[in-house]
């Protein structure tokens, strides 16, 4: 149906290529020319500035959920004025002892033009957004949406 591309560029800038010495900073370049400064997470010797893959993964899930939610609301003529999320990814070890992002918790706060729907309707909108989210349908990570 469609392809989505990213170019990843890294170059060694250190004399040594020992694990503790080489830099983790690199760039992601997308099809429209957008360049994102990327790095490893600080726990894995990443730079202070840059997006790490784990953050990008959490942002991708949260962004896809939001875009799905907005599309559903638009089709139902439920006007959304603002959407804010502070998503958190949880790193854990799997059964083989390997690290993975086992859980992503979404905490969306939505402002509606005509006031919020009742809790059951809001939960149904978020449930549907999860069901149709391309990223959620592509990962094994447990995704939980907290609604206040």
Can you describe what's shown?
By secondary structure, the protein is α+β, with helices and mostly antiparallel strands. The chain has helices at about 55-75, 120-130; strands at about 5-10, 25-30, 35-40, 80-85, 90-95, 100-105, 110, 140-145. The chain has 2 domains: about 5-45, no CATH class; about 55-145, GMP Synthetase, Chain A, domain 3 (2-Layer Sandwich). The protein has 2 helices and 8 strands, in the order E-E-E-H-E-E-E-E-H-E. The strands form 3 sheets. Strands 1-2-3 form a 3-stranded antiparallel sheet, with no helix packed on it. A 3-stranded mixed sheet has the order 5-6-8, with helices on one face.
Summary keywords:
148 residues, GMP Synthetase, Chain A, domain 3, 2 domains, 2 helices, 8 strands, elongated
Could you give a quick summary of the protein structure above?
The protein has two helices and eight strands, in the order βββαββββαβ. The protein has 148 residues and is an alpha+beta fold. It is elongated, with a radius of gyration of 18 Å.
Largest sheet geometry: 3 strands, antiparallel
CATH fold node name of the largest domain: GMP Synthetase, Chain A, domain 3
Report how far apart the termini are: 36 Å
From the alpha carbons, calculate the radius of gyration and give it in angstroms. Answer: 18 Å
CATH level 1 class label of the largest domain = Alpha Beta
The amount of helix comes to 25-40%
E-strand count: 8
Low-confidence stretches: none
Number of helices: 2
> What portion of the residues fall into strands of 2 or more residues?
25-35%
What is the CATH superfamily label of the largest domain? K homology (KH) domain
* Element-by-element helix/strand order: EEEHEEEEHE
Question: How does CATH name the architecture of the largest domain?
Answer: 2-Layer Sandwich
Morphology call: elongated
Main-sheet strand order equals 1-2-3
Number of domains: 2
Rounded mean pLDDT is: 97
